[in-house]
Design a protein that fits this description.
This protein is about 75% helix and about 0% strand. The protein has 14 helices and no strands.
């Protein structure tokens, strides 16, 4: 497998940064791309951190600075994950019939549940970032959590988490990662968060709490999707990323 192609696929999937697409997308390549997601979004995380730092240094309104950082993050990812969050919320609340729910997700028009999900999740992200601005290393913490939040995509792509459709973007990534690899990714993410907390003279278990909160929220959302939709789709992956980021920022704030 060409690592460069996996990197390109990861950057092209998780960011709006223009890259040359790989010639062929295989399950193995897709799994590697998802595993690289936390690293692929480093430029977006750095941009958001820079916005937070500059806004604080200029003495701008904290909540406006936090909202601008979230906007920059959405722009840098084509609002791809936010779209997934909205569609998933509408689908999960539209009908108990899986076929009907999947059709609502596929149409993609933002309904009441989707709009509410966007307001609530973005509100949590902005509020938590506003609080983090009070911390000396707040922008750096935010950047680290933005990268870490993308690791939840590996959970949705783990073997055993079945797909709901035979077509669509989700099929490219569904069941492409071995459970051992997913576990290794999250052990690494958790260790990094704990080490980061310790380095900032914070209780080490804050990192553990942040990772655990993300895992619990993502597991609940995936379980809900499998039970209501019959499996996961691409929009569900986006929803898990946004929910994970909100939970991580809230736990760290």
């Amino acid at each position: 497998m060409d690592l460069l192609n996996a990197w390109r696929l990861s950057v092209g999937t998780f960011t709006a940064i223009p890259v040359a697409p790989p010639r062929e997308v295989t399950p193995r390549l897709s799994g590697a791309a998802v595993a690289l997601a936390p690293l692929a979004v480093v430029p977006l995380a750095a941009t958001a951190a820079l916005v937070l730092w500059l806004g604080r240094e200029l003495g701008l309104a904290p909540i406006a600075v936090a909202a601008t950082a979230v906007a920059a993050l959405a722009l840098g990812s084509r609002a791809f994950h936010l779209d997934g969050l909205s569609d998933t919320a509408d689908g999960l609340t539209s009908s108990y019939d899986p076929a009907r729910a999947l059709e609502v997700i596929k149409v993609g028009n933002a309904g009441p549940a989707g709009a509410a999900a966007l307001v609530l999740v973005l509100g949590i992200q902005i509020g938590a970032l506003t609080t983090l601005l009070d911390e000396a290393w707040g922008p750096a913490i935010a950047a680290a959590l933005i990268c870490a939040s993308r690791a939840v995509a590996a959970l949705g792509c783990t073997r055993g988490v079945r797909g709901a459709r035979k077509d669509g973007l989700g099929v490219t990534y569904t069941e492409t990662i071995h459970p051992v690899v997913t576990a290794a990714i999250w052990v690494a993410i958790t260790a990094a968060l704990c080490l980061g907390a310790w380095a900032l003279d914070l209780p080490w278990w804050r990192g553990l709490l942040t990772a655990a909160a993300s895992l619990v929220a993502t597991a609940w959302l995936l379980r809900r999707a499998v039970r209501r939709l019959g499996g996961v789709v691409g929009d569900v992956f986006g929803a898990t990323v946004e929910v994970s980021l909100a939970v991580m920022l809230l736990s760290a704030s």
